[in-house]
Amino acid sequence: MKNLKNALLLKQLYQLKQLGYRYTSQTPFKDEEPDLTLPNTLDKLEKQAKECHLCDLSKSRTHVVFGEGNPQSRLMFVGEAPGSTEDSMGKPFVGRSGDLLTKMIENVLHLRREDVYITNIVKCRPPNNRVPTPTEALTCQPYLLKQIELIKPDLIIALGATAYHYLTGDDSPVSKVRGTMQTHKGIMILPTYHPSYLLRNPSAKKEVYLDLLKAEKYLSPHQ
Ligand code: URA
Questions:
Q1: Which of 78, 84, 93, 194 could cysteine-pair with 163, CB 3.0–4.6 Å?
Q2: Strand (E) or helix (H) holding 159
Q3: Ligand 1 centre from 83 Cα, in Å?
Q4: How many angstroms separate the CA atoms of 148 and 154, rounded?
Q5: Which parts of the chain sit beneath pLDDT 50?
């Protein structure tokens, strides 16, 4: 909630600045604290995210890409941010790296794409596909944390360094931590390479294959 509150506070201060204020003695939120709790259903959360203007990414997006899939899934994939195809379609991982992710889900995990839940660290496309800034990622974080709280996956596969970093707080390169099962706040997280990295470095596909086998084993009822 702190991130949301800070983002709202910053937005109010920018609005005052645009109106010509250089100093203010006002304490926003003092008299009337807005209700900053996020909704407790995925549909309502998505509706709220779709109206979000808490960071600059909202200015250039076409669609908010909230996430999609089975809300009861035991497996969640978290990527970095929507790209241009995702931004125009409003769905996560539907471009070239999405095609590869779908193949990984179907051919290695033997699941259908719609059986899992897929989302990103930020829900709006960063201009020119740059990495989201820490402010953008942290402002968007309450939506992701609420998605995780509502879906309660048994395992989250963090796709790439940005997803891994903002899910765990750890700055280690993915090459060092990939394939390691890590518990964070009671949730199992498995980092692996991002599909767009695999498109540029196809030889790393064998490592991702091994990581996904670990995920499959972990989720198997007979483990
Ligand atoms: N890359 C991501 O990290 N997420 C998407 O949704 C698409 C590409």
A1: 78
A2: strand 155-159
A3: 6
A4: 10
A5: none
Backbone conformation region of residue 52, classed left if phi is above 0, alpha if psi is from -120 to 50, else beta: beta
Report CA-CA distances (Å) from 128 to 59, 84, 105, 194.
14, 9, 27, 18
Q: What is the CATH number of domain 39-222?
A: 3.40.470.10
Cα(43) to centroid of ligand 1, in Å? 21
pLDDT at 32: 59
Q: Say how far apart CA 182 and CA 81 lie, in whole Å.
A: 22
**Cβ-based neighbours of 197, under 8 Å, separated by 6 or more:** 160, 204
Using the atom order of ligand 1, give the atom closest to the CA of residue 91.
Answer: 6
Domain ranges of the chain: 1-29, 39-222
Span 107-132, pLDDT tens digits: 999 999 999 999 999 999 999 999 99
| Closest residue by Cα to residue 155 from 86, 99, 102, 109 | 109
What's the confidence (pLDDT) of residue 178? 98
Pocket of ligand 1 (CB under 6 A): 79-83, 86, 92-93, 95, 97-98, 120, 196
Q: Ligand 1 atom closest to Cα of 121?
A: 3
Question: What does the pLDDT look like over 195-213, one tens digit per residue?
Answer: 999 999 999 999 999 999 9
Nearest-atom index, ligand 1, CA of 79: 3
